[in-house]
Amino acid sequence: MTGDAGVPAVLSALVATAFWGVWLGVSLRRDRRRLRNGFLLMAVVYTGVGLVTALVSLVPGGSTAVSWFSFVLVAVLGVALLLLPVLLVVNGVTMLRRERRSLGNLLSLLVGLAMLASPAVIAAPLALGAPPWVWSVVVAVLLLTSWLGFTFLGFVAQTLLYRHYAARVPARAVIVLGSRIVAGAVPPLLAARLRTGAAAAARLGGGDGPVPVVPSGGAGRDEERPEGVVMAEWLTDHGVPTDRVVVEDRARTTRENLTYSVALLGEHGTPGPYLVATNSYHAPRAALEAMDLGLDVHAVGAPTAGYFLPSAYLREFVAVLRRRPTIHLVAGAGIVAVMALVAFLSVAGR
């Protein structure tokens, strides 16, 4: 590429990067919890790479360097895509061994098996000499899968983008989301949430002692005592002053955790913003729930066992899809309609 020919490419890439960058900045300023921030970040990165590529191409020998970079990038992504389904299946087997068997805990295994089977599904119509309309069905499935993959990447990007901001929110109280109590005691997963909440309360309080901490959770069907009560005992046993613990013992869902806890803090004269402590995989959705409810609440995540994360993030992603089902239904219906039209035209033209 000559210098004169490369200048328009640089200018167009610069304009595109600036456009997405400004939009991302405005969106972050309005609310850092929005899911669209992840998609805007992806757009900034994509156009930014294009800008750097265009600039490097202006340098003598730059086109060769760009070609090699593109080759290496495609090779790395290809290897990653080949390894991903295997890793998901291995993780799924680990989940079967260590956790109770449920659809949520089996997600990594199911997704991994589906990815391993996809090449055979694609190749079968070709090997069997299937009619054109079958190919339309295959392409429709691939496009639907691509849409879900794109949406998942946006979810992951927003998770990474939001994580660093939430830890710096100048909150006036901390809410710890409850989870299942085992044999009347706090299990490791919930203990991680409580440790994170207690540490955040101490940090936010500074030398004046911890800010108020709300352990939130009612009693489940198989629980004799409310989660909030058991969590409060854990907090006081681990050094949080009793007068700093405000128990919420009615909530059954994340939305109720947030709504009841914020109302309780308001009754105690503690205004927002508030910080929610939950597990790392659950923090993005908890923040989205708070945003949907119009609450001045941000979420931080506690460390979670690595083997648990793939299925947990997939489960959270499914829950995120259910927040705005119309968008995904319209996208899916559009893909199916277009491919149905292609199939009809291919059949009619025979």
Taking the alpha carbons of the first and last residues, their distance comes to 45 Å
- SSE order, as H and E? HHHHHEHEHHEHEHH
How big is the Rg?
A: 25 Å
Number of helices: 11
Explain how this protein is built:
This protein has 350 residues and is an alpha/beta fold. Among the domains are: 1-60; 167-304, HUPs (Rossmann fold, 3-Layer(aba) Sandwich), CATH 3.40.50. Helix content is 68%, strand content 6%. The protein contains 11 helices and 4 strands; from the N terminus they run αααααβαβααβαβαα. It has helices at 3-30, 36-58, 62-98, 107-128, 132-166, 188-205, 227-237, 254-267, 283-292, 309-323, 325-348; strands at 173-177, 213-216, 274-279, 297-302. The chain has a 4-stranded parallel beta sheet. Helix 2 (36-58) packs across helix 5 and helix 3 (62-98) packs across helix 4 (107-128). 32% of the residues are buried.
SSE map:
Blueprint: H1 3-30, H2 36-58, H3 62-98, H4 107-128, H5 132-166, E1 173-177, H6 188-205, E2 213-216, H7 227-237, H8 254-267, E3 274-279, H9 283-292, E4 297-302, H10 309-323, H11 325-348
Parallel strand pairs: 1-2, 1-3, 3-4
Helix pairs in contact: 1-2, 2-3, 2-5, 3-4, 5-11
Short description:
By secondary structure, the chain is α/β, with parallel strands linked by helices.
Question: What are the defining features of this structure?
Answer:
alpha/beta; Rossmann fold; 11 helices
